[in-house]
Design a protein that fits this description.
Elements: H1 5-13, E1 18-22, E2 25-29, H2 30-46, E3 55-59, H3 66-75, E4 79-82, H4 89-99, E5 103-106, H5 111-117, E6 124-127, H6 131-136, E7 152-157, E8 167-171, H7 172-186, E9 194-196, H8 204-207, H9 209-214, E10 218-221, H10 229-238, E11 242-246, H11 248-256, E12 266-272, H12 278-288, E13 292-298, E14 301-308, H13 310-314, H14 321-325, E15 330-331, E16 335-340, E17 353-359, E18 365-366, H15 370-376, E19 382-390, E20 396-401, E21 406-408, E22 411-413, H16 415-423, E23 428-438, E24 442-451, H17 459-469, E25 478-481, H18 495-507
Parallel strand pairs: 1-10, 3-4, 3-5, 5-6, 9-10, 9-11, 11-12, 12-13, 24-25
Antiparallel strand pairs: 1-2, 7-8, 8-18, 13-14, 14-15, 16-17, 17-19, 19-20, 21-22, 23-24
The structure holds adenosine monophosphate (AMP).
Length: about 500
Amino acid sequence: MNIAAHLERTGRSAGQRTAIAAGERPLVSYAELLDRVRRLAGGLVAELGLKPGDRVALAMRNCPEYLQVLYACWQAGLVAVPVNAKLHGREFAFIIGNSGATACFTTPDLTDTIASASAADRLTQVETGSDHFRHLSSADPLPLADTLPDDPAWLFYTSGTTGQPKGAVLSHRNLLAMSLCYFADVDATSPWRAILHAAPMSHGSGLYALPHVMQGSCHVIPDSTGFDVAEIFGLIERWPHCVFFAAPTMVRRLLDHEADTDTANLKSILYGGGPMYVDDCIAALERFGPKLAQLYGQGESPMTITALSRAMHGDRTHPRWRERLASVGIPQSVVDVRVADSDDRILPPGETGEVLVRGDSVMRGYWQRPEATAETLRNGWLHTGDFGCFDEDGFLTLKDRANDLIISGGTNIYPREVEEVLVGHADVSEASVIGTADREWGERVVAYVVLRPGAVADPQALDRFCLENIARFKRPRDYRFIEALPKNNYGKVLKTALRDMESARKSD
Ligand code: AMP
């Protein structure tokens, strides 16, 4: 099927419902959104001459037109390439060039960047709100393209904490599987009425827009371009039964907000995309109530590998509640998940290996990268590059990305475990641990630490604290105190940047 069929259905069966709001203001109903989508799709085909399978880039910040453009691509059988709005011009150019996009929608703030970054002669650029955009949006409506389930729908460029970004080819089937798992595994209890797009729609928030189109939620686009905590709390007060997707760092920022706010309207915070520290998770449960759900996924199996549901978060009386909060939950309904050794042999519970995934949410491959595809989709399984282990109850706990693993004296050290200990210290706000070459041990553990305001750097105190909490060989041998950890545009810590900082120190 075509994933845009859901908008056709909601637009007709619940056309009067508000589909899009700008901050507190309702803007567009589902019937209007459907009409705009059909017309823009008509414009893409009749005016721009695009044909099914052609790629259209979205270099757009979150904005009220985002879903119109996304669904218009699918309505016309085109492939959407949503690009993170915070990327550098060079990165935009790479993604547009690599995907072969011939049209690119931009929000006004990105128009010049795209114009100077890409081969303009080949690319038709359309700015939202421009006359050109209005003209395309008033073309004759196009009926839904007859798309097959395995046709590409979304080229998802991985965030690239390492190397060049690769475009995971996500089909209509993949997006449908992800959407159904949202209801089955992540946030099973209705009503859902509003989804706040607090995080980039080019990534998790846009992906989770899909199940919310299926069941007719209002998509609320905050007015601020960044993550404005005060605004988010205001929108929660405004919109009943609201949910939003947040990276763990955003949850942390909500917790740091002191003001007394009413969160009775909040239904769920869906978090994922990176590790959430258990203490933060418990603090969020205390502040907001049992309204958290976690998902673990990656661009190659979007939002859909495992989930820790709201119910699991709320099950405080369970003897292993705390361990479960430290996990990423159990496999989502449409996938098989296993932990395997380097020869793909299944490992028993308690043993750590690479996380492998198979099922309807797994990408078809990387766009025009047959070798990388063959490497990642070996033996019928997606090799995630994440390390983890299952417990006896089937809960998966992630350790680290394969290339973040530290091997010291022949023993594996998982940075996450050391980081969990460090952030438990009262003086530490954030910590990231890497390995650095060591003549004696092969690698040695180095911790980059951001202190809480007013705290004083005291490596000995942190060393004592580590000795009290983890095996001696895992403790950091060096501490580097810094103002802030380098992060990518999705808030993920860039360990590659920390490794570069470490090598720069050595060569000084
Ligand atoms: P991306 O493809 O950019 O979405 O990044 C996916 C990667 O983020 C995964 O392979 C994991 O390493 C990490 N990740 C995603 N969700 C979680 C989670 N819930 N907990 C810890 N790490 C996560």
